Prior knowledge:
This protein has 25 helices and 21 strands. It is of the alpha+beta class. Among the domains are: about 5-95, Herpes Virus-1 (2-Layer Sandwich); about 115-190, no CATH class; about 565-675, Hect, E3 ligase catalytic fold (2-Layer Sandwich), CATH 3.30.2410.10. Helix 4 crosses helix 8, helix 13 (about 420-430) packs parallel to helix 19 (about 525-535) and helix 22 (about 565-570) runs antiparallel to helix 23. The longest helix is centred in the C-terminal third of the chain and has 28 residues, at about 650-679. The relative contact order is 0.06.
Amino acid sequence: GEKKTKEKWNLTVHYYCLLMSSGIWQRGKEEEGVYGFLIEDIRKEVNRASKLKCCVCKKNGASIGCVAPRCKRSYHFPCGLQRECIFQFTGNFASFCWNHRPVQIITSNNYRESLPCTICLEFIEPIPSYNILRSPCCKNAWFHRDCLQVQAINAGVFFFRCTICSNSDIFQKEMLRMGIHIPEKDASWELEENAYQELLQHHERCDVRRCRCKEGRDYNAPDSKWEIKRCQCCGSSGTHLACSSLRSWEQNWECLECRGIIYNSGEFQKAKKHVLPNSNNVGITDCLLEESSPKLPRQSPGSQSKDLLRQGSKFRRNVSTLLIELGFQIKKKTKRLYINKANIWTSALDAFRNRNFNPSYAIEVAYVIENDNFGSEHPGSKQEFLSLLMQHLENSSLFEGSLSKNLSLNSQALKENLYYEAGKMLAISLVHGGPSPGFFSKTLFNCLVYGPENTQPILDDVSDFDVAQIIIRINTATTVADLKSVINECYNYLELIGCLRLITTLSDKYMLVKDILVYHVIQRVQAPFESFKQGLKTLGVLEKIQAYPEAFCSILCHKPESLSAKILSDLFTVHTLPDVKALGFWNSYLQAVEDGKSTTTMEDILIFATGCSSIPPAGFKPTPSIECLPVDFPVGNKCNNCLAIPVTNTYKEFQENMDFTIRNTLKLEKEESSHYIGH
């Protein structure tokens, strides 16, 4: 909810936290205190909540309690959302924990097959749950909770209604009971200034190849031969009556483009029936609510800010599903990329900058060797190539920082437009099945999602040791004299970056530190950031990230989870008739690797078979498989994600052969790469 700060009382509260807190009531008028909640009441509630521990995160300050009798669960508002609690934004603003939340009771379920969400048209199982809701007035209308919440935030109380029958009273009452927040405001599309202005405009120009009017193409004289007549099909092309030999304004006229379409399509043919899109053939542009309206002016104390609007559109959707949706843009036409594994960055840059390269084409990879006189090439794994490319990007000079990285300021890279190319590579990698980048700092991610102006960097974002020391010295100053002494020592630097300010009290140091952080982490790299951001717009990736920030944060800011024996066992499917003994050895081998009884790791096994050290967010394509072959040593086919395991007499022989082959193969590949890079 909207964050409200009262500096006079040194108080900051979120609007939703205030509404939902169990021990506070709105005793004042709307203009008193914070939205009618008196300051003394807020302080009492803060004191009460400080003694309550959240049953989700185990931290104090849990001001919201379940209203069910005898239930003692307390939680924070975000923690409650995380555990799928229900908050009713009506009446007494009741809150229900996950065990006592209201449910929709369906007397009989005659739906055997999936039905589409009537907002986004994605197919869902018609079973009421926290994330799936049914319309109370139309039995065949089902919704994602996320879709309903976005619709409610955009439509407001005056336009939020059932998408099938347009009922508002019964529909809104049920949705409020199920925790959908309906703000008291006009629809966002009604609030935009001059939103429908273009509908009042019409085309007034003669567009025929040879205009005969001496006054020019824009001349329009009604009730004469120089009156403009618009195309009856598109309305976006026009002609003077005389220029197209029309005798009167009532005579029909089509422009050349529309005429060609009508004649080529055969106007007397029967129109084809449109089929309802399903999850297999729906295009990325078919989603109705991919991104909420960018404008939402505050109309009442309960209205949302832009931040809330983004939150409304993000609610938790699976990132794999989002990437698969983006993947619908990929065409069947393929583009082969010739990649030198010893110089991934340069060869990838050349391939992506090629004028014939289209990011929406399917990618094929062929590995080549530099200065090879025979011009030999061999098929490569697309996912291995993207994995190597992301590793190089993470360690490149375009980023700075140890684990969580921000953009660096590299003038040469800026000159060569490499920040744009880096963003483009990241976008292509995500859509084409590449690995999780996992190295973005939270600050860089927030800048991309919410904008630099709404992001506050922290000390961990500063990788420059000298700048970090200046910030630490300012922050640890205990007196005004100490603070002024530090500022005098750093006078030239502070003047250079425009952060000099008049110091009157010790608390001024906090604003000074904030200014330095904003300059060093955000303003200093503004040009690289804008370039990187443009590249990330490739294939609509940035728009998707901004619509669903919580989902994408998990893959952009966090490394994937560690592999386990169970994960790998479930990942690899057995396609051929299995050798029971060999499969038993395989499962025992995975357990031994997990227990540290082998010289290889889970990641080594996955790299050997697929070229990737982790499972891509969109999954492997094709699915990794296992074959049992009468061979002495395992064979990994990275193009097909296939692992052939040996058939041996004893488990000891099986483990020795697996360890030897995997360890030495990866070691040889690493040495070859280092050898080429060294030369």
